[in-house]
Amino acid sequence: MVKSDIEVAREAKMKPIVDVGAKIGVPAEALLNYGPYKAKISQEFINSVQSNKTGKLILVTAINPTPAGEGKTTTTVGLGDGLNRIGKRAMSCLREPSLGPCFGVKGGAAGGGYAQVVPMEDINLHFTGDFHAITSANNLLAALIDNHIYWGNSLGLDPRRITWRRVLDMNDRALRSIVNSLGGVSNGFPREDGFDITVASEVMAILCLAKDLKDLEKRLGAIVVGYTRDKKPVYARDVKADGSMTVLLKDALMPNLVQTLENNPVFIHGGPFANIAHGCNSVLATTTALKIADYVVTEAGFGADLGAEKFYDIKCRMAGLAPSATVVVATIRALKMHGGVAKDELKNENVAAVGKGCENMKRHIENMKKFGVPAVIAINKFITDTDAEVAEVKRQAESVGAKAILCSHWAEGGAGIEELAHHVVALCEGGTASFKPLYPDAMPLLEKIRTIAKEIYRAADIAPDASVVTALRDIEAAGYGHLPICMAKTQYSFSTDPNSRGAPTGHVVPVREVILSAGAGFIVAVCGEIMRMPGLPKVPSADFIKLNDKGQIEGLF
């Protein structure tokens, strides 16, 4: 019988976190311990390593996700273990899981099988309290906005044009659209409001892009909370929220150190949505890891058309990062789904469907090369894969100048991914990477959106609403034209139709709204319907999560 992820994690022989830190030169006094197996890295230590040599950065991304699963986080963890197994000083950088998906349908985000990060239960639940701090900071700003209006509204905020929403780190559709301040004069002025999930908060994106506390406070102050009646922006600093929000976030800004099942170091820090935000772990965690390890493996949310594009065009642009290699994760099962096979038929061999589905994989490879970074395919092995199907993926990858390597890290840990580790090292040391963003800062905002749609999604064109064109002109006139674009669209397809799998071309990308995230430093272009507060499924995972007679958690996965 195959053990569940939580059963595997529970059998882990964890080392004290001070020993894990020592492997990468982090002294015990630089750790702020949260129990024996997790800790935060002090800002003083981070400052002290800035003159160190910078390591090689490896991005793990994937084909467009399917219900069959791809295993991007599992591969990120496994590759970190594999690099350590072949004698390299390596570590991984991951995002923190959100409570909402854990109790909903998606499950946790600490890897799987024998390529996991532990303590798994802690990481998937409250961890070190970062998300609670972000929730509190977001909602403090919301409270200060309504309080400002209550006490006379000297800034002239138009209650109809308040853009700041409250957040909660839970899937709760009932809170998507609400009316606040009901109950009489003493409770304020009623207005339409709503909740997003915490990972969709601009505060989350800001925490993940801030370089230090000073930069954090400046970015928080730059949040646009709403507009006056004559459409002039009102900022968080105008309601004097930036200082107090920074106080709530001062500990959350420090990266969290944990370990893999093989006792290798991992930073898990931050977790912005890859739709409404940029979907990467924190800049501070990544840049710190690059100063204390020779190879750093990190991931970006969803498929490469969303996560990797944002990693390159937003995170790398802002942080001055230059990746050396890209790993695109695929599974035979997912490729068959992209080739038109139904989920209940995936166990049957179908080489033709694999070949058809590889059109999705090959496009991602071609797209990654547009950023000047060499790429490799990691085939995340399932027991139903056949030799013929694997051979077809390898053949298809070679047709676009890439190698596809079968990886069995889920079942074997670092030992099952050594071949990929050796190949990634060869890519990193080969000197072929010459990173460049897809578009320059100076390009007009509408052209940036069009460039992403044509170059990455292979769309014929974009179809912006008239209000979008006007809004982009206003944003440029306000001095934000240099900012990068954060595309918000379905993760399941290159198009905006989630059912259009494979590699569609010639489609038109509708742009129905643009949102200025001035604090985070990007413009969100909303293409299609994007859910900022998920709901729970008919049978949520919460139905099966409980404590057993030994006081252990069951049902997490």
Number of E-state strands: 26
Rounded average pLDDT: 95
Give the overall shape.
globular
Terminal CA distance: 16 Å
Low-confidence stretches: none
Remind me, CATH topology of the largest domain?
Rossmann fold
Q: How does this structure look, described?
A:
The relative contact order is 0.16. The strands form 7 sheets. Strands 1, 2, 3, 4, 5, 6, 14, 15, 16, 17, 18 and 19 form a 12-stranded mixed beta sheet that branches. A 3-stranded antiparallel beta sheet has the order 7-12-13, with no helix packed on it. The two termini are 16 Å apart. It has 557 residues and is of the alpha/beta class. It folds into 3 domains: 299 residues, P-loop containing nucleotide triphosphate hydrolases (Rossmann fold), CATH 3.40.50; 120 residues, 2-Layer Sandwich (Domain 2, N(10)-formyltetrahydrofolate synthetase); 82 residues, Formyltetrahydrofolate synthetase, domain 3, CATH 3.10.410.10. The mean pLDDT is 95. 35% of the residues lie in helices and 19% in strands. The protein has 19 helices and 26 strands.
